[in-house]
Amino acid sequence: MELQKTDTESNGGLSDEEYEPFRHRRVKKPNSTNGTIIHMLKGSLGTGILAMPSAFRNGGLVFGVIGTTLVGLIYAHCVYLLVSTSQKSCKRTRVPVLGFSETAQSVFRHGPAPTQGFANAAKAYIDYSLLIVSFFSVCVYLLFIATTLRDVINNELDIDWDTRIYILLTAVPLIFVTQVRDLRYLVPFSALANTLILVTFGITLYYIFREPIDLANRELFPEITALPSFFGTVVYAVEGIGVVLPVENKMKHPQHFLACPGVVSIVLSFITVLYNVTGFFGYARYGPGTRASVTLNLPSEEKLAVSTQLLAALAILFTLGIYYYVPMDILWRKVKHYFPAERHNIAQIGIRFGILVAMTGLALGVPELEPFIGLVGSICSATLGLLTPIVLDTVFRWSTPGAFGVFRWRLVKNVILMAFGLFILVVGTYFSIKDIVEIYG
């Protein structure tokens, strides 16, 4: 949506300082606070939790807990910065609601003079970054399904098919899944997928805890070279920044989102604890052999374990349609004017199919799940989930006297957090690509 000031009449002649965006929101069927908590949990609690034992394998038991808690705290703070900046931008521009990209546009347009010319570029950057994150996630999920099928079918049939064969086989049903454009047909499958993930997670915990866990011969701290992979995986698992503002914008009581305790503190505290428990005990159980998804460590000779692996793969398959819906909706709004109205249908079919072919080609080129998760976490999640909220908060405060606090402590804090985000982005990307090159070089 384009940024427009509400007219004086609709604001009742209020000044910028008196304008309260929440009073002017008109949301059909707004979500309750509890409903918002559930939506936030669904946004951050996904298959990334199954990768946490692998993260702890790289980080060690002690540092894994410290590092995961640190990432959880930083991400929670970045969510706070993003939502707070969006709400203050609404008040400044006197509009009731702003999305992620519109918030970036508003912040730059009304920020310091040197940033104002980049307002439209900031909006486009967020939109295209969300596209890249979503499509890369599709690639990760495609690899997850293919790897799971490879392990199960190769073991059951005593064959030795390569992962690439299963990638191609998985892509066949996705041709049809990714062509679904009506959200009504995708939501039931998403609900079923969430149920299957919970069942998978529950059975996985059963296998982790069914026998006493021995912590002997488990690393407590990481090697320096493993740190980027650890942080990249954790950030990928925790981050769900794309759903934050859409969920907050539809709240019945949006002031509860950043309250203490509020939606952010409750959801991310729960997720941080859950991810620590899963990562710690998953690595403690399987040790150096812990794989990119802990479901792949389940005993292949037991039918319950095999069915759990297949349930996880099926859950991801059901989820892929709705993951495809969001980026395609953004992309289609940007390109549909290039096509005559009578060719919109065939254009959508072609674009959706072409992107699936590209993602399948990428998966075929790098059919290893673990380095790809680290790469997506380093490039995409670190950029959107960590760096972007910090930059927006800094630009918003820059021209306001005293906005950074005594001794400009908020600016110092933002610089430190930005250095952490850049560390994950640059170093994590380097080591993830290095791992991929070593595997296929």
Automatic annotation (TrEMBL):
**Lipid bilayer topology:** Multi-pass membrane protein
Q: Which GO terms describe its cellular component?
A: vacuolar membrane
GO MF annotation, one: L-amino acid transmembrane transporter activity
Q: Does the keyword Transmembrane apply?
A: yes
Q: Where does it localize?
A: Membrane
Q: Where are the transmembrane segments?
A: 61-83, 128-149, 161-178, 185-209, 229-247, 259-284, 304-326, 346-366, 372-395, 415-433
Chief place of localization: membrane
**Keyword annotations of the record:** Membrane, Transmembrane, Transmembrane helix
Q: Where is the Amino acid transporter transmembrane domain?
A: 33-433
Region annotation (Disordered) maps to 1-30
**This protein's name:** Amino acid transporter transmembrane domain-containing protein
Originating species: Anopheles melas
